[in-house]
Amino acid sequence: MSNIYSEKAMDHFLNPRNMGKLDDPDGIGDVGNPGCGDLMTIYIKVDEDKIKDIKFKTLGCAAAIATSDMICELAKGKVLDDALKITFQDVVDKLGKLPPSKVHCANLAQKGLKEAINDYRGK
Amino acid sequence: MLMNTKIYLDNASTTPVDERVMKDMRPFFDEKFGNPSSLHSFGQEARVAIDESREKIADFLNCDPKEVIFTGSATEANNIMIKGIIEADDDPHVITTAIEHDAVLETVKQSGANYSILDVDEDGFVNLKDLEEEINEKTVLVTVMYANNEIGTIQPIKEIAELIKTKNKERDKKIHFHTDAAQAAGYLNCDVKELGVDGLTISGHKIYGPKGVGVLFKKRNVKAEPIIFGGGQEDGIRSGTYNTPLIVGIAKAVELLKEEKRKEETEELRDYMIDEVLKIEGASLNGPQKSRLPNNANFSFKGVEGESIVMILDQKGIATSTGSACSSKSLEASHVLKAIGLKDLDAHSSLRVSVGRKTTKKEIDKFLKILPTTIERLREISGR
User: Fold this and answer.
1) Count of domains in chain B?
2) Are A61 and B343 a contacting pair at CB < 8 A?
3) Looking at residue B305, which CATH number applies to its domain?
4) Do B344 and A19 touch (CB under 8 A)?
5) pLDDT in 10s for each residue of chain B, 384 residues
6) What is the ipTM, given to two decimal places?
7) Nearest residue of B to residue A10 by CA position?
8) Active site residues of A
9) Is there a single domain that holds both residue B90 and residue B199?
10) Domains of chain A with bracketed CATH
11) A37/B331 touch (CB, cutoff 8 Å), yes or no
């Protein structure tokens, strides 16, 4: 149906694999602004400097939800320093086509992950 | 078994061309292709069609056929009226409202004229006292939409016209009153004498006519400079070869409104839908309960984002919108919803559902079945 979003992006929007909350997370990243309508929370569980588990809750458009899900997929199992190297472009590339005006959502997802890691390290 | 069961609930965005309109338009693409400005029989045949179309529109608007200007869109009609009046004036001041369609709002803002933008109340209505206060000695134009495209608010056009008429009695510089009736024409009275307007805009594709054609009613005594120059068609105010098939199409669409208004039935179906949707927890109606365009509904749902709702509903074969189709590209929340006082998140969580001639109760019931699970699913994802 939609050629604004790639099939893959639509799939991650409609069937997000990493949606949910983590009980007792080691780090939480809360990002977004009501002005653009997207609010994102990333939860991480860390074990031996690696992201053992990661989940998200996102209030937002299809792109915001799909990019949240993808950043979780990309970050899962990574060493924290490597997870921090994930760029918003990595997220976009993995999802395929996003509407140009929605590419910033990937930026938000990356920021969310960064916040969660910083939250863990700050503790 | 899969069947074509798509449901279209975005009739405020556009409507399908009525088959009777199609039939009338058809010959003017090839058989009767003449240029209405030509002297030969090909041209004359097309000229007759233009004249008849103009009369049909004049009949609907209760105006002189000479006051009917065919344009390429409602946007263009608004531009011709607004910019035309501004250009004809040495020191113009224009008044409009915060919830106008961009075709008016942007035209006023880009025009270079001084302007005032009237706030609206929580249902989207303008206040006549506010309008009166904004009128100054330079005011040359007031433009207020007849019915809002997002929340359906029907403005008190007659009362505004009365106020302006009273003001005009005491002043030399006359104030002109224009209304964009693109959304209203399908359901509301567009008798320009009864309304008391000097200008009125209609769109073809909102009333089961073709896209790419609009009408501007411009009262004969209104001085407006042309903004498009060329062969001098439409008394010089809108140059460009007559688009015969589309003009025939919009005229037929307007003619059909007489028998197709179905205001009550539409309203009944819409009200049924509103009542049912409001049973969803955290759902609220945007716009007024009364004085609302019969086909329009607009909701906000706590904890979800509008575009996501539209996308999931579309996956299930139901077409709706977040607000106006034109603003789907922008990330900003609707200027209309913000103007009626909605907070950013509530404005972003809006869903516009607009029924049409072909909408059935069965279709609404299917929508009502799918919507709650959609909202529930998105709340699960948002955690709010």
Assistant:
1) 2
2) no
3) 3.90.1150.10
4) no
5) 445 689 999 999 999 999 999 999 999 999 999 999 999 999 999 999 999 999 999 999 999 999 999 999 999 999 999 999 999 999 999 999 999 999 999 999 999 999 999 999 999 999 999 999 999 999 999 999 999 999 999 999 999 999 999 999 999 999 999 999 999 999 999 999 999 999 999 999 999 999 999 999 999 999 999 999 999 999 999 999 999 999 999 999 999 998 876 899 999 999 999 999 999 999 999 999 999 999 999 999 999 999 999 999 999 999 999 965 554 556 788 999 999 999 999 999 999 999 999 999 999 999 999 999 999 999 999 999
6) 0.94
7) B311
8) 36, 105
9) yes
10) 7-122 (3.90.1010.10)
11) yes
A83 contact partners, CB below 8 Å, separation of at least 6 = A51, A74, A75, A113, A117
Who among B307, B311, B381 is closest to A57 (CB)?
Answer: B381
Q: Do B319 and B10 form a contact (C-beta atoms < 8 A)?
A: yes
3-class SS letters over B41-95: HHHHHHHHHHHHHHHHHHHHHCCCHHHEEEECCHHHHHHHHHHHHHHCCCCCEEE
Say whether both B312 and B224 belong to one domain: no
Show which of B229, B259, B289 is a domain's final residue: B259
Query: Which residues 6+ apart lie within 8 Å of B284 measured at CB?
Result: B278, B299, B300, B346
Q: Which two tokens stand for residue B220?
A: 């004969």
CA distance B66 to B79: 19
Among the three residues B259, B290, B323, which one is the final residue of a domain in this structure?
A: B259
Do the chains contact at B380 and A19, CB–CB below 8 Å?
Answer: yes
Q: Looking at beta carbons, which residues of chain B come within 8 Å of A60?
A: 305, 308, 382
Q: Are residues B95 and B196 in the same domain?
A: yes
Q: What residues make up the domain containing B373? A: 7-16+262-382
Chain B environment of A37 (Cβ under 8 Å) = 305-306, 331, 333, 344-345, 348-349
